[in-house]
């Protein structure tokens, strides 16, 4: 007799508006200019998505020098340092910026504070493309990076009374709140964003995981190892009481032995993971268990971002 299992499906999960827009930008660029179209860095952090776009004619590179000057280049959803589009313009290249509008909002914030004479503190992960892109909006030395509460104690700003902070959009909401509290304690005059920098999609997906964590024996987060928001979902699940949380790229990556004997499993997906991969995981469980699927919805999303006008093909 097949064992019974309840799958708690978190909602919201999967694609956010910024990811959906970035993918459409690549597809529309291929439609408008033909293949190949070059993309600087993975357009979003998901191998399934990247491979699908590659099959349509996208070429993924890490540097502008790898792009021929006579083919269009697209900048990824994570954003790029200001020097990158400036160099593309200098070379006379056709380029489209697919930076998520919520990341662009942080860029604009940083520039506004810089113009007002404030030095920036950025809460983010060193080496992540979004962090590199945001820090690259301002001259070197104008952005101090911190990752943890411990980092806050070590920084030496130019003028402690003339500071502002910004954050990467895909961080843990709870961890970031602790770092912000430490910054405000050490630098009472520090200026924060008018609206939270951590994006709605990151926040909503973390809240959904917190809602299912007490109900489940294990959590599966569908997402890439280099996806910041997906990795945070694993951490949030563990912090909310689910001791066993796995990050898997797709069903074939599930470590069934590590899962052991289960009665209930939570399933969610990072903001760059398509729903087809969620369905694949559900089917993998149905092949092994008598599955009941329960949706746990904590918010509804209806955000949509427009694509750049330059990509619209005249009728």
UniProtKB/TrEMBL annotation:
Cofactor details (free text): Binds 1 [4Fe-4S] cluster per subunit.
Keywords, comma-separated and alphabetical: 4Fe-4S, Iron, Iron-sulfur, Isoprene biosynthesis, Metal-binding, Oxidoreductase
Transmembrane portions of the chain: none
Single GO term (MF): 4-hydroxy-3-methylbut-2-enyl diphosphate reductase activity
Listed pathway(s): Isoprenoid biosynthesis; dimethylallyl diphosphate biosynthesis; dimethylallyl diphosphate from (2E)-4-hydroxy-3-methylbutenyl diphosphate: step 1/1; Isoprenoid biosynthesis; isopentenyl diphosphate biosynthesis via DXP pathway; isopentenyl diphosphate from 1-deoxy-D-xylulose 5-phosphate: step 6/6
Binding of isopentenyl diphosphate, residues: 45, 78, 128, 227-229, 272
Annotated binding of dimethylallyl diphosphate, by residue: 45, 78, 128, 227-229, 272
Cofactor: [4Fe-4S] cluster
Reaction equations catalysed: isopentenyl diphosphate + 2 oxidized [2Fe-2S]-[ferredoxin] + H2O = (2E)-4-hydroxy-3-methylbut-2-enyl diphosphate + 2 reduced [2Fe-2S]-[ferredoxin] + 2 H(+); dimethylallyl diphosphate + 2 oxidized [2Fe-2S]-[ferredoxin] + H2O = (2E)-4-hydroxy-3-methylbut-2-enyl diphosphate + 2 reduced [2Fe-2S]-[ferredoxin] + 2 H(+)
Positions that bind [4Fe-4S] cluster: 16, 100, 199
EC number(s) recorded for this UniProt protein: 1.17.7.4
Active site residues per record: 130
Enzyme class: oxidoreductase
Residue sites binding (2E)-4-hydroxy-3-methylbut-2-enyl diphosphate per the record: 45, 78, 128, 169, 227-229, 272
Task of the protein: Catalyzes the conversion of 1-hydroxy-2-methyl-2-(E)-butenyl 4-diphosphate (HMBPP) into a mixture of isopentenyl diphosphate (IPP) and dimethylallyl diphosphate (DMAPP). Acts in the terminal step of the DOXP/MEP pathway for isoprenoid precursor biosynthesis.
Membership in a protein family: Belongs to the IspH family.
NCBIfam families, A to Z: ispH_lytB, PRK01045.1-2, PRK01045.1-4
PANTHER family membership: 4-HYDROXY-3-METHYLBUT-2-ENYL DIPHOSPHATE REDUCTASE
Protein name (Swiss-Prot/TrEMBL): 4-hydroxy-3-methylbut-2-enyl diphosphate reductase
Lineage: Bacteria, Pseudomonadati, Pseudomonadota, Alphaproteobacteria, Rhodobacterales
């Amino acid at each position: 007799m097949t064992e019974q299992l309840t799958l708690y499906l978190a909602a919201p999960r999967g694609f956010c508006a910024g990811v959906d827009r970035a993918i459409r930008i690549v597809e529309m660029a291929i439609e408008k200019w033909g293949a190949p179209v070059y993309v600087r860095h993975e357009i979003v952090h998901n191998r399934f998505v990247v491979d699908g776009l590659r099959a349509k004619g996208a070429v993924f590179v890490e540097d502008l020098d790898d792009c021929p000057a006579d083919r269009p280049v697209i900048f990824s959803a994570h954003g790029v340092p200001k020097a990158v589009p400036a160099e593309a313009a200098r070379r006379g290249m056709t380029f489209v910026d697919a930076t998520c509008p919520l990341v662009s909002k942080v860029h604009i914030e940083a520039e506004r504070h810089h113009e007002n004479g404030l030095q920036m503190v950025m809460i983010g992960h060193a080496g992540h493309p979004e962090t590199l892109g945001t820090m690259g909006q301002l001259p070197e030395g104008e952005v101090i990076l911190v990752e943890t509460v411990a980092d806050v104690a070590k920084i030496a700003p130019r003028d402690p009374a003339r500071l502002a902070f910004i954050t990467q959009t895909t961080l843990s909401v709870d961890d970031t709140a602790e770092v912000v509290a430490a910054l405000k304690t050490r630098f009472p005059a520090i200026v924060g964003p008018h609206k939270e920098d951590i994006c709605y999609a990151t926040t909503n997906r973390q809240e959904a995981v917190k809602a299912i964590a007490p109900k489940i024996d294990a959590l599966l987060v569908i997402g890439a190892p280099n996806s910041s928001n997906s990795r945070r979902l694993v951490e949030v699940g563990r912090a909310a009481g689910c001791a066993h949380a796995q990050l898997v790229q797709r069903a074939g990556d599930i470590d069934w032995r590590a899962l052991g004997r289960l009665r209930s499993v939570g399933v969610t997906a990072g903001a760059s993971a398509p729903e087809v991969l969620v369905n694949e995981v559900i089917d993998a469980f149905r092949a092994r268990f008598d599955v009941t699927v329960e949706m746990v919805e904590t918010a509804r999303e209806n955000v949509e971002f427009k694509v750049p006008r330059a990509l619209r093909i005249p009728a």
